[in-house]
């Protein structure tokens, strides 16, 4: 299913995606988080075919992850912006990014890292914690069936 | 690129994948985290074509996310187990899972949730925090170029 080799990409998210499947949609969302809004901007960033980008953008809008809005400068160009639902994918991107940073870059290689604007320090590694704050390891968790109900 | 409609799947990870791309590889890893080891077990769980599963498994082994090992019961059946690198994808799966749980299930629907074995409570929502522990919001972070060096 992979259409592109991301193994040399500067973005650790893209490198991770290159190892686990076809992820144009998440790369579009990554760019939306970075402030890109126009078709041409996404195409320039991703370097993918117009028909592929167009199909992915439409799917993201269909799933309410992006919404189409009028050009912010009043031009005829339609723009795309993240919905609240789309913004909630931020942690997926952070997790993908941190995996790539930890495993897919060698000494001396540069990449785009997500940092705290206050001090320029990289975002801390995500942690799996219990409801009471305990750090959880793989052996501390298991999968169980749960049910959403109106009171939850 | 989507080959399957995951929108009705019980697994919130699968539902998220269904919205953002083709993710057979991550579903295989999800099953490996759940303890599946044999080709037939993965095929039964995923319900995907043998050639697709075979190609995905080979790619995961190639990328050192899974390794092939002799059958644990001494049988002729080859098994697959997560590598340390593969285990580091756990947080990606947790992030995908939590997005699905938050956005892709309706009242009364059941799903497989990741819970703390000690108290059965779901794993706490992942959080984006600064190196000093401060909770970070979208506006608190930005992407900057960094370089891996031998001292890091």
Provide a descriptive summary of the structure in words.
Two copies of one chain form a homodimer. With 152 residues, chain A is an alpha+beta fold. Chain A contains six helices and four strands, in the order ααααββααββ. A two-stranded antiparallel ribbon of chain A has the order 1-2. In chain A, α1 packs across α6. The longest helix of chain A has 14 residues, at 90-103. β4 of chain A pairs antiparallel with β3 (110-116) of chain B, so a sheet runs across the interface.
Features:
homodimer, 4 strands, alpha+beta, 6 helices, two-stranded antiparallel ribbon, globular, 152 residues
Write the layout of secondary structure elements.
Two copies of one chain form a homodimer.
Chain A: H1 12-20, H2 24-33, H3 39-46, H4 50-62, E1 66-69, E2 79-82, H5 84-87, H6 90-103, E3 110-116, E4 141-147
Antiparallel strand pairs in A: 1-2
Helix pairs in contact in A: 1-6
From the spread of the alpha carbons, the general shape of chain A counts as: globular
The pLDDT mean of chain A sits at 82
Q: Count the beta strands of chain A.
A: 4
Multimeric organization: homodimer
Estimated radius of gyration of chain A:
18 Å
Biggest beta-sheet profile of chain A: 2 strands, antiparallel
Strand order of the largest sheet of chain A: 1-2
Short summary:
Two copies of one chain form a homodimer. Chain A is of the alpha+beta class. In chain A, 38% of the residues lie in helices and 14% in strands.
């Amino acid at each position: 299913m992979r259409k592109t080799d991301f193994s040399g990409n500067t973005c650790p998210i893209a490198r991770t995606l290159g190892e686990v499947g076809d992820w144009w949609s998440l790369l579009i969302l990554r760019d939306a988080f970075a402030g890109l809004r126009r078709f041409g901007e996404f195409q320039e960033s991703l370097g993918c075919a117009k028909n592929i980008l167009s199909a992915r953008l439409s799917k993201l809008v269909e799933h309410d992850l992006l919404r189409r809005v009028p050009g912010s400068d009043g031009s005829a160009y339609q723009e795309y912006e993240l919905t609240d639902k789309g913004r909630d994918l931020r942690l997926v991107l952070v997790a993908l990014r941190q995996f790539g940073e930890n495993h897919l870059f060698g000494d001396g290689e540069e990449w785009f890292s997500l940092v705290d604007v206050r001090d320029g320090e990289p975002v801390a590694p995500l942690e799996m914690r219990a409801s009471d704050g305990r750090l959880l390891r793989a052996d501390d968790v298991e999968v169980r069936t749960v049910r959403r109900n109106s009171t939850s």
